[in-house]
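Record 1 of the preview.
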Amino acid sequence: MKKFTLFLALIAFVFYGFSQGKNLPKAELKCQMSEVQHYTPSEYNELKSTTTWGDVIWSEDFGGGQIPSNWVVVDNNSMGYVWYWSDDAVPGQAGTYSGNNQVFGATTASNGYIMISGDIYNAGGGATNMDSYFITAPINCDTATSVMVKFEQYFRNCCSSSSTSLNMSVSTDNVTWVDYSVINGVAINAPSDNPDVVMINVTALAAGQSTVYLKFHKSGASHYFWAIDDIALITAPMDEIKLEKTYNSFLGTFGTDFGHSGYYSQIPVSQYMPLYLAGDVKNKGVNEQHNVTLNSKVFDASATELFNQTADTSSLVSDSTVYLDMPVDFEPTGTGDYSITWECYQDEVDEIPENNFGDTVDFSITDNNVYARDIMRTGTVTPDNYVDGADGDLVGVDYYVYASDTVKSISVYVYYTSDPGSILIAKLYQWDGTDNVLIVESEEYVLTASDIGTWVEIPFITAQAGDDILDPQYTYIAGVELYWGTAELRIGSDDTDPHIFQYEADLRIGTTWYWISEVPMIRLNFASAVTAPNFTSAPVVEHPIDSTYTYTAIVDDPNASFTAVVNDTDIPMTYTDNGDGTVTITIPELSSIGYAVGDSYRIIVRADNGYEENEQYFWVDIVANPDGINDLGALPVSIYPNPAQEELFVNNAEHATINIYNLLGEVVLSVKDANSLNKINIASLAEGTYVVSVISNDKVYTQKFNHIK
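->
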């Protein structure tokens, strides 16, 4: 795994009501600008149909059968992982994992394009680090008064948003570069739009320059591919403002002072604070813009408008940004779901009005005492992504405690690539104005197969009475200390807007604290919180191609309801919510619909107890039909009778482990190193429904049965 250099620029900020600032260095994974606009082809064509900008200054469609000879292609790792010209209909179609890639939809893809294929270069093995780019020949823009870069792309990445970057960069001297990330929040293992039309206004850098260079740079450990076509420099709009970023920050009060505590997706009603709203508006056109205004509205779940405020400035010159904050803060009307909308406008007629709107921001105020910042899982975070990151280091999330309460646990999302046997320790620190002080922690939590790809709750253990009672108007770090040795251990993370990362996310390497540009998926649970259902069954992760796949998922809440999805709509999956805390998933044999041994598909099982939702996220590999009857993937195990009264028989489970669970997910009977035919005395069990789990060589077979007296 690549180690990233720690960028130790001190970031000073007012931290939640203390007169002393909590000054932390940033653990910088990548330095990128974010002034990038993304469109589908139809959106771009509609946009161009109503505007006068977009005249072509320079273009390249790769119809010459090669990368232009005066361009430079560089492989920084000297491993031969380079960009190349291709006219394959499907980018990366020769790669191990690219069988589901689509035909490239770029405007002139049929006459060729350029790409880099992590899939081909890393065929069949781990994702080796890549660090490769190409640079155009110098482009003359000395007569241009405005310049915008436009290109069409199609990509897919694995395996962590922290370790992979796709940058388009601009330079006028081929030495100093300005980088723009073009990933656009596309989730790991998901494809981008095909094509994704990218536009970046670089007027301030390129207009009037006789030499302009463009660089496309992929770095990080990744499979899959990045394809580029139809690169152009075009004229930019004359009148154009853009809402660059919005700020939705709850405020922690201390006397009359205010400190920002960042964004919360879910906040207990007892901890609710005023909501401060602001945004950055940039003049991306050539002309000065007048009466630039930002409007913010807040709505409840019934779409009733609760808040409507504006802030403005008299004028904004080209390539400048203004920070506009609402004159008053939002106060809630009670528990419920809330949405924030954004729009900026000016006196002039905006030539790209589509980017005058911010993403709608949702949050909830609940009577369930779960504190959360995460919105969606976009990647993973682990200390091993950073220089000197090692066993015993910690990732965490800041929570401002407005009113005193008792804490009971944290919930942490364990990514599906993590290995059982790794160890987590939950820790809670209080920022006392000068340092982070450990308040309470958990015992060691050893991950099992059922913990992978799901939320896991880890309870705190108090050393003495009162340790778990949190003081009001202090900031706490809910963290998890990680121990993985030679295995893999990753925590889900969220690197999307509207997070204000320096107020929200922490990394501790050794004894040094940093902030990071992604929020670990770690939630803080107060004493009365109803946490998500906990999965107690390990997924079945192999599907013999000519057999029926069956998996019964079990959670520890018999009242939970279930849904399940598969990532390929061609797969005829069915699931049955059994109404007792279990759900049975069934998928028929797959060879008849074009699947082959070596293919895989993803299943997500979701369990909801009415307060919180959990999921079990895992991949199923399609394997060859087994030769022996003792291979559980062939489903030879037979369990009978059903219902059973005093004895239960489990056949064809030689050398397996047999566990019998009640509907709370508790093991009530267990057999180790089973025989081919096992007679299990169940007379002592209470009447009810149970689940038998047969585990052998990482394969799992599950079946329900009823016990009667």
